[in-house]
Amino acid sequence: xxxxxxxxxxxxxxxxxxxxxxxxxxxxxxxxxxxxxxxxxxxxxxxxxxxxxxxxxxxxxxxxxxxxxxxxxxxxxxxxxxxxxxxxxxxxxxxxxxxxxxxxxxxxxxxxxxxxxxxxxxxxxxxxxxxxxxxxxxxxxxxxxxxxxxxxxxxxxxxxxxxxxxxxxxxxxxxxxxxxxxxxxxxxxxxxxxxxxxxxxxxxxxxxxxxxxxxxxxxxxxxxxxxxxxxxxxxxxxxxxxxxxxxxxxxxxxxxxxxxxxxxxxxxxxxxxxxxxxxxxxxxxxxxxxxxxxxxxxxxxxxxxxxxxxxxxxxxxxxxxxxxxxxxxxxxxxxxxxxxxxxxxxxxxxxxxxxxxxxxxxxxxxxxxxxxxxxxxxxxxxxxxxxxxxxxxxxxxxxxxxx
Length: 403
Prior knowledge:
By secondary structure, this protein is an alpha/beta fold. Helices cover 33% and strands 30% of the residues. It folds into three domains: 58-170, Immunoglobulin-like; 181-197 and 239-402, Rossmann fold; 200-236, no CATH class. Strands 2, 4, 5, 7, 8 and 9 form a six-stranded mixed beta sheet that branches. Strands 16-15-14-17-18-19 form a six-stranded mixed beta sheet, with helices on both faces. A three-stranded antiparallel beta sheet has the order 1-3-6, with no helix packed on it. Helix 7 packs parallel to helix 9. The relative contact order is 0.09. The chain crosses the membrane at residues 12-30, 36-59.
């Protein structure tokens, strides 16, 4: 359908150009004189060029896009190189090149992604553009559209090249030290900076499998006997492993919460502990507690593309998930805004399973409300370790004196 419309448009433009050319010739013939013939002579080469351009094969062009790398951290510069080549030197006064990218990249940056080039007789052109401070996200480059035309706009032709690319921008993070708290007493808490040592050799019973249990914990005899997956229950010891719960309620400072989550993930894994992630937006995402470089890449990939698109209120998500009740891990909740219902649900979890940490993340110049301050104190009285974290102060997140 598009090809048919393009051919029809070209036919009408050809007829229009021929009409103008014949009209100017007729004017010169009947009017006579220097001025009329000068106008015809001036218009003749432009009209001929437009007619030739009308039939100029755009498939003679080829366009290629290049990146120095495909993975970045938020805030880094991304340099894109567009290379245009053609097989002949037919004069082209201009090329309007448009890099077709995903809408989320257009929305988050001020780059126009349209560039005007003047090849004239050149067979090769190179154009570089830079996206400063690339925002976190997953971005697609679908193709490159090229438009050519004459000086007066009588003829305009375009062609699209399916040059697909993909760029992943991981969230920024701050290097900080994760200090797992060994014991909690009335006078405070003690922390260790040593690497986490693990011991789960003392099995005392069996129970049903829950997400996050290791494959090696499965008791195959009990599984066959009960016709359900059963795992070993080990002697309860103080754990340094973390399950991170990210609130994806729409908020203008959501990227700061994501950056803070990435910083925690990196610091926990560097400590030698294990970490998992739960986030619920338009769909629920759960990553079991694990350790290692692969786990960091997996979680960072999720945080690169995650959006604040939760359809349920955060407290309702907490209420509907049994996974928080069954995890023998340190639970860390990250929220941008604190509500009464959220504090109630998190406090109830704290009473049942022990160490629960709640971070309220704010922008650098954002003020925490009086209501939130009161809720923070309420959460602390109920045994939830609670702290407000501001952008740029992530390093103090696990400072003992700050709790």
